[in-house]
Amino acid sequence: MTLIRSQAGIKPSAGANAVSTLLTFGALPIVLAICIVVFQLGNPRFLSSANLLNILQQGVFLMLIAFGQMLVLLAGGFDLSVGSVVALTSIISAQVMVAVSLAFPEAPGFAIGAGFLATILVGLVCGLVNGLGVAVLKVNAFIVTLATASIFRGVTLVISQGLQVSGLPRDFVYGIGSGFFLGLPVSFFFALPALLAIFLLVRQMRFGRYIYAIGSNIRSAMVAGVQINRYLIACYMLCATITAFAGWLLTARVSSGEPLLGGEFPLNSIAAAVIGGCSLRGGEGSPTGVFMGVVFITVLANGMDLLRIGSNYQMIVLGLVLVGAVVLDRYRLTDATKR
Asked: Per the database entry, which stretches of residues form a coiled coil (predicted)?
């Protein structure tokens, strides 16, 4: 880093400060704008109203999961089981809705409600398992959530026998999954209250202050009287529950229970959160940054689809994006240390 001397000592130059700002969160809007220009030049349909609605519909699911991932990252952990929670939710909620529909064919709303209740229960149980492993058993979050990802995926395959669950209520598939209200996807209106609740929880309530404290310095938080285990478990339960909710909405979108659904979400949700300013060390990040990160990931995937870039190459690009996000996270640590 270029340095200049002054009477107060050695300070970073204005150019170095600009580079520091550019390489952190400030770079994201610029990179996003460049991507939009490139994709629009590559395919004029990119900024069409139909494609923008498609981007919104695609981004809703990742937005929910990334907001859940943010809670865990702020507390100093992360959750690799989100993809498996999506698949487990898809199968269990679909099976419940089909069973209730057969028992009460004249009440599709009852079947949808039962499926939603099953979704919440799946999320709470999966989150509780993760939270107990991290908070009570004191096992590293990477190991716990990697193990539970395998367990949840295995349970999903056992329950479903690897088969899709079809025959979902029409109101669920065509109303929630592919319906529109006021010109916007119905799934967006379902997701909006959950996203607003997480935003308020993190930015306006004591819960948010405490998880920032835990992620920043767990010993100091403990000395300050924060009940560490309670808040860690709550973070994992909230993450899994909002992930399960996203899995329920995604099940409506694909119109069947899918045992292999959600495989891309662990990578994409962590990448979106870290790109948006969340630190892998915990204690840093904001809902606004995560929102920007999700927009970037969704625009990138959609633009590559329109440019007919193969899925294998897209996986390479997303992997490179995650590496870049980790490098930026390391840069933020180095920059903060120098200050």
From this structure: none
